[in-house]
Structure formats: C-alpha cells, structure tokens
Design brief:
- This protein has one domain: 3-Layer(aba) Sandwich (Rossmann fold), CATH 3.40.50.
- Helices cover about 25% and strands about 30% of the residues.
- With about 180 residues, the protein is an alpha/beta fold.
- The radius of gyration is 15 Å and the shape is globular.
- The strands form two sheets. The chain has a seven-stranded mixed beta sheet, sandwiched between helices. A two-stranded antiparallel sheet has the order 1-2.
- The N and C termini lie far apart (about 40 Å).
- Helix 1 packs parallel to helix 2.
Length: about 180
C-alpha cells in the first residue's frame, strides 16, 4: 500500500506489480494532481487511470463532481475500485475499456490523462484527437507528459485539435498541458 499527501490530503492506494508506478505516485502524476484545474460540479474523466490516483484525488478535492475513471488493464480497474473504497469516495466510478470506448455516450467538463507512453505516441495522439468527442463546450483537456517525450510535438497536436494550448506547469522533467474546447 502506498500512502501519500497530495494538495495537503492523505491518500492510500493499493498497487500491484502489473500497474504503472507501483511503489509511489510518480512525479508526472503528482504534478498533474497538484496543478489540475477542476470545475466545482459536473463530470470529469480520468483516462488511463491506473490504480486511480488522479481520479481519486479529483473526486476528493471537489465532492460536487462525478468522476469516471477508465483503464484497459483489468488489474488496474480492480485496484482503482478498491482504492475508491479505501479512500471512502462515492462520487466516482471505474470502467474497463480501451481509450474512450467505455464512456462513448457520456460528456465531460474536464478530461485528465497521464497517458501510457509505453503504448506508443500514436495512442497518446489518439487520446488527444478523440477527446473533443466526449467534452462539453468550454471543457478542459489536461495531460502530463515527459519533457523529453512529446514536449515539442504534442503542443502542436493540442493546437491543431483545440485551437489552443498552454503549459500549466513544469517540474522535474514533466509538463502539464491544458487546452479548452471552444
């Protein structure tokens, strides 16, 4: 079990060897959590949730939200569901499936992602290019990336898809990019 403080709150996470960053909340995820901009109410998507750190933090920070977390890894989905219970959060749910498939009939006020770079840059680009299909007008898309992987190319993809892109934060070799659906 990993215990960590995020934005001043203590969280506990069950992890396993088959999921990303099993020993601690990694620096990129931590940067996204510490800097993510969340609406007070509405729906938020944590795409590629792993064991649930981002979505669980969002649900805890903003109790008026409904958070949907998705992952293609069955074990990650199981852990995220357990972690919701451990952290006593009831305004979130976890769904199994690839990219946007599990939530294709829903819309969100914000989409958050620490993308699976190991799946390849095409998957990361698909996460960005398909995001507007599930976003409400004015919704934000926020993604953490390694500065060495995608920092030069992904802002142009954001600009192509959303017409805007800002660097929300930089730290320890990571960047959080944010765009808004017009």
């Amino acid at each position: 079990m990993v215990q960590t403080r995020l934005r001043g709150e203590i969280f506990k996470f069950l992890t396993a060897s088959s999921v990303f960053s099993k020993k601690q909340v990694d620096l990129g995820t931590r940067l996204l959590i510490e800097t993510m901009q969340l609406p007070e109410t509405g729906a938020v998507l944590d795409l590629g949730c792993g064991y649930g750190a981002v979505g669980i933090a969002a649900a805890s920070f903003k109790p008026g939200l409904h958070v949907v977390m998705t992952d293609v890894n069955v074990r990650a989905v199981q852990l995220a569901r357990k972690n919701l219970k451990i952290n006593k959060l009831y305004n979130a749910e976890v769904r199994y499936g690839h990219l946007y498939e599990p939530i294709k009939n829903l819309t969100f006020n914000s989409v958050l992602s620490n993308p699976p770079v190991s799946a390849g840059m095409e998957t990361v680009k698909a996460i960005i290019t398909q995001a507007p299909l599930v976003m409400t007008c004015g919704a934000t898309f926020q993604m953490v990336i390694r500065s060495k992987i995608g920092a030069k190319t992904l802002p142009s993809v954001f600009n192509q898809i959303f017409g805007n892109c800002q660097i929300l934060a930089r730290k320890s070799g990571y960047r959080v990019l944010i765009a808004q659906k017009q």
